[in-house]
Write a structure and sequence with these properties.
about 800 residues; alpha/beta; TIM Barrel; Rossmann fold; Jelly Rolls; six-stranded mixed sheet; six-stranded antiparallel sheet; 18 helices; disordered N terminus
Length: about 800
């Protein structure tokens, strides 16, 4: 007993400070442990600014769903490698990504970050992304463990998931990543799983550290910790952001008090020290050598390839695509996303683009050549408000942008900090410029708008404090601060309240001022929606009626898919649907491009000649799209998510959080393509579907087993392969993705277990050997708490999509 007390009162606390962050983007250094600060930055779609500064730029990568549509692990690894290079150049040590959650429903506000509805495809592509990033000497912080597919009440909601479903579906991508790529960090989700917050979920963290033998750092999501002993005992290693509220020195104090075992602290310190070793952040250490550094030209070429390989051709009636410039004199390019495409969803991880952004409109004009007249009409007005800087605003000195000022609290007139910025939404984690952290103050935005004539405008403001809006010296709106438990959500959503009023002709001064109390994050936003004098739909229809062909580019705006808010429908903005229907009614030669990175409703798909899904395809969207439309590149993407016919066909439609904020996953299981098969519903476009500029036919498929046995999966797993022959039935070369779906005896639904992209010359045959995922044969036995491989006859269906006809192979285990 005396020995036990001595161990409690005199534990080894070396390096305990490592377990708490320093600020919003760095871990704390420990000279005693020989560990320097480690920089962690968001990065699924590009490297994000530490201080959310629009002047800190990086290349915008394709979204997770766009990469999922490539079905190409090698290409996804290259994109990860490019992101790693961008991180190296910006002093980043760990990239917060990829997102390996599954879009259980297209209503998830963050579905655009996720690769696929299928856990196997998500795991394979996510692992490739991790390998690419880490080959450059940066760590991947794979997120969010687990069942984090609902943004509504995401910090408090409870994902109620049966253990079998949790293991076989939602944990599966993370297990694949750990076993095949070993990301150097795993981030736990905000939500609860079966009643316990992920950061305090000992059973969940035990799966990572014990079942999977994971040796990296387990970190909280930002502000995702609210207890010291429960979190430390559960197995969390690092609390972010800093300064720490619950770990760090409090971790050490809990060990001293005997509330947490000393071994738990040593484990956390060892893991963070290992991360420092891997990233070259040990005192006196050297940085790892990057695997490959691409030139600016090579970077753009890779992004262009990634964009073109992500595009999925859903319809191509009468082979209208590729377009023949020789047969077109006037081409109408209509739709809001043609001149203002959407590259990313609304998250904290918003990327400010590096270098030139070529819009689809400009790229199409260039590709069609001087002999084709390319004309444009937007056809709709923006459904969300715009930053003032996009509306021609100027600071009081005439410089484009706005004047941002930081002031002392009310009653003090001193301006502590000021600068002209080309944004009108600002976020500060920790210190506010000129003021510091944890103190009250004010932020003010001043700008001037010049109007040619009097017009009705909608002006809006919001933030983390009490915001007021002034026009020409008169206060016209006051917005109260958000509820304390939703501050992060308000910041993520950039929420505003708006007022519509008539602004006079000439110069109008707009001032937004926010008074804020001490807090760990502060934000202020000013937005506007100008009046449109003409009818944009009529203008677009008039143009379409006289054109030889029409390309309609519609989709999301950056704020329509966003962090901390879910959708209420899978549909596009109704104005976009009305535009497509009106244009198709006056011109039969209509091609529609959908710039939305999620499954969407397409009620007009049967009334247009061609339909191309373009997702959020990265910074080379414009050039990539023009290349595919004109036939320089053939579309080869395949759907990574199922497209429903109606909202009612979505898994779990009509169910949501109950009064206790519980979400019953049983209402939406099985989800994805398995939902359509189990329910007897027909997807509008099934998982794995996609056309090209040629046709394909499966000729033959033969399965062979090599050592795979039924029984305890831990006893060793052999292999199964499928030999496939594919024929190109068209007149041009193309790429198809052959897919293998399997089911055990007694099961009613198939699951994806293998795939391979096959390039085939025109009129020729090609053969491919597809290695079937050995872990796909496992099933979780809840009564025995272990993986088993069911015995009996297995069916392997070789097909070109989840709902298509295929060739059936059988093997007996």
């Amino acid at each position: 007993m005396a020995g036990a007390n001595a161990a409690v009162t005199d534990p080894d606390l070396t390096g305990s400070e490592l377990t708490g962050g320093l600020n919003g983007w760095s871990t704390t250094a420990s000279p005693e442990a020989g560990v320097e600060e480690i920089v962690l930055l968001d990065g699924p779609l590009g490297i994000v600014s530490k201080t959310m500064d629009e002047r800190d730029t990086s290349l915008i990568m394709p979204s997770g769903t766009a990469l999922g549509a490539t079905w190409n692990p090698g290409l996804v690894s290259d994109v990860g490698q490019l992101l790693g290079q961008q991180g190296l150049e910006r002093g980043v040590n760990v990239v917060l990504g990829p997102n390996l959650n599954l879009p259980r429903t297209p209503l998830s506000g963050r579905a655009f970050e996720m690769f696929s509805e299928d856990p196997f495809l998500t795991g394979v592509l996510g692992s490739a992304w991790v390998q690419g990033v880490q080959s450059q000497g940066l760590g991947s912080c794979t997120k969010h463990v687990v069942a984090n597919d609902t943004e509504t009440e995401r910090r408090r909601m409870n994902s109620c998931v049966e253990p079998v479903v949790l293991r076989e579906t939602y944990l599966r991508p993370f297990e694949t990543a750990v076993r095949t790529a070993n990301p150097w960090m795993l981030m736990l989700a905000y939500n609860r799983v079966n009643g316990t917050h992920c950061s305090q979920h000992a059973g969940l963290i035990s799966i990572l550290k014990n079942d999977w033998q994971y040796d990296g750092v387990v970190v909280s999501d930002w502000f995702g910790v609210d207890d010291t002993a429960a979190t430390a005992n559960a197995g969390l290693d690092l609390e972010m952001p800093g300064p720490a509220r619950f770990l760090g020195s409090r971790f050490a104090a809990a060990v001293t008090a005997g509330d947490v075992p000393g071994g738990r602290l040593r484990d956390a310190v060892e893991r963070i020290t290992r991360l420092a070793d891997r990233t070259g952040r040990r005192t006196g250490g050297t940085a790892p050598e990057p695997a490959r550094l691409r030139s600016p030209e090579e970077q753009r070429e890779l992004l262009r390839t990634a964009a073109t390989e992500s595009f999925v051709l859903l319809e191509n009636r009468d082979n209208i695509l590729p377009l023949d410039p020789a047969r077109i004199r006037t081409l109408a390019v209509v739709g809001p996303n043609a001149a203002k495409p959407c590259f990313q969803g609304g998250t904290f991880a918003t990327v400010r683009p590096e270098g030139e952004l070529v819009t689809p409109l400009d790229a199409i004009r260039e590709a069609m050549g001087p002999d084709v007249e390319v004309l444009h009409e937007a056809g709709t007005v923006p459904s969300s408000a715009l930053p003032l800087s996009e509306l021609g605003s100027t600071a009081p000195d005439g410089t484009p942008g706005v004047l941002l000022e930081i002031l002392a609290p009310a009653g003090e007139d001193a301006v502590l900090y000021s600068e002209v910025r080309k944004a009108s939404s600002f976020v500060w984690f920790g210190p506010v410029p000129g003021l510091g952290a944890g103190v009250p103050g004010r932020a003010r935005i001043t700008t001037r708008l010049k109007l040619d004539s009097a017009a009705h405008w909608s002006l809006g403001t919001g933030g983390t404090g009490t915001s007021s809006l002034w026009v020409d010296g008169k206060q016209v709106l006051e917005v109260p601060p958000p509820a304390p438990d939703d501050v992060m959500g308000v910041v993520a959503r950039a929420e505003t309240q708006r007022i519509t009023l008539e602004l006079p002709a000439g110069e109008v001064e707009v001032v937004v001022e926010m008074a804020f109390e001490p807090g760990r994050v502060q934000a202020i936003t000013a937005v506007a929606v100008p009046e449109r004098a003409t009818n944009p739909l009529k203008d677009a229809v008039r143009l379409a009626a006289r054109a030889d062909a029409v390309i309609v580019v519609v989709g999301d705006e950056q704020g329509s898919s966003r962090e901390s808010a879910d959708r209420t429908t899978a549909g596009l903005d109704p104005d976009c649907d009305r535009l497509v229907e009106a244009v198709a009614a006056v011109n039969a030669e209509t091609v529609v491009v959908v710039n939305a990175s999620r499954a969407v409703l397409l009620p007009w798909a049967d009334r247009v000649k061609a339909l191309l899904m373009a997702w959020f395809p990265g910074q080379e969207f414009g050039h990539g799209l023009a290349s595919v439309l004109t036939g320089h590149t053939a579309p080869s993407g395949r759907l990574p998510v199922s497209f429903p016919e109606r909202n009612e066909d979505i898994p779990g439609w009509g169910t949501g959080l109950d009064a206790d904020l519980d979400l019953d996953y049983a209402a939406s299981e099985p989800m994805g393509y398995r939902h359509f098969e189990a329910s007897g519903r027909t997807a509008r476009y099934p998982f794995g579907y996609g056309l090209g500029y040629t046709g394909f036919r499966l000729v033959d498929a033969v399965a062979a087993s090599a050592g795979l046995r039924a029984g305890d999966a831990a006893a060793g797993v052999g292999g199964v392969s499928v030999h496939v022959t594919l024929r190109n039935t068209g007149e041009s070369a193309g790429r198809d993705v052959v897919q293998v779906y399997g089911k055990a005896v007694g099961e009613t639904g198939y699951r994806l277990m293998g795939f391979s992209a096959v390039d085939v010359a025109a009129g020729e045959r090609a053969e491919a050997r597809i290695a079937v995922d050995p872990h796909g044969f496992r099933r979780w036995d809840q009564t025995k708490s272990r993986w088993l491989i069911p015995s009996g006859e297995w069916e392997l269906r070789v097909a070109r999509n989840a709902a298509g006809e295929g060739i059936l192979c059988r093997i007996t285990l």
